[in-house]
Amino acid sequence: MHYTGLSSSEEDASGDRTTRYFDANGRVVATENATGQFTRSRYDGQGHTLEVEDPHGNKSTLSYDGQHNLTQVTDALGASSYLDYDGEQRPIRATDALNHSVETDYDAQHQPIRARDALANEVLSTYYPTGMLDTLSDARGVETTYEYNTLDQPTRQQTASQPPVDTAYDNRGNLLSLTDQAGATTTFSNDSRGLVTTRTDALGYSDKGS
């Protein structure tokens, strides 16, 4: 494991800090939680993640095809899941360790429009001409709609007749506030680079990122 000394950290409202460490290529090679436990990642020369080791020493391995597509993930117990692709390198089938598969269909713009599981349950999607998600209908037929601003940032998400989730931004596109379905608003402060520096919830509790 090679560390460059570069790291970033964030602290939540409880004072718990998470720190990420990077290699010379800017890839996260280790994540340290508030109790000092590490999750580590190993890469090949092409930047593919080959192995992830959790704080308990459990390792998952990842495999890729000649087109750099992820094709297999095997956990510490030897259970594997698989991904299949079509000729345009789009994932069309995901199969878990129990051999349950989900198949995906696409439109002419390569956007996923239908996901179908082994029980014929379907999730359907539609899109705006800009390519942004417009509606998403789950297997029960419950539809969620999405709205965006002129920068294609999400401003409203509403599921059926439930209250919406609203998001506001400043004129530079920086996140200012998020109001959930209960009407509770979280506000955000940003630095000159547009990075979130403080999050304040509806009760007035704040946490900081760095």
Characterize the structure shown.
- The chain has strands spanning 7-11, 17-22, 28-32, 38-43, 49-53, 59-64, 70-74, 80-85, 91-95, 101-106, 112-117, 122-127, 133-137, 143-148, 154-159, 165-169, 175-179, 185-190, 196-200, 206-209.
- It is mostly beta strands.
- Among the domains are: 101-162; 163-205.
- It has a 20-stranded antiparallel barrel.
Lay out the secondary structure.
Elements: E1 7-11, E2 17-22, E3 28-32, E4 38-43, E5 49-53, E6 59-64, E7 70-74, E8 80-85, E9 91-95, E10 101-106, E11 112-117, E12 122-127, E13 133-137, E14 143-148, E15 154-159, E16 165-169, E17 175-179, E18 185-190, E19 196-200, E20 206-209
Antiparallel strand pairs: 1-2, 1-20, 2-3, 3-4, 4-5, 5-6, 6-7, 7-8, 8-9, 9-10, 10-11, 11-12, 12-13, 13-14, 14-15, 15-16, 16-17, 17-18, 18-19, 19-20
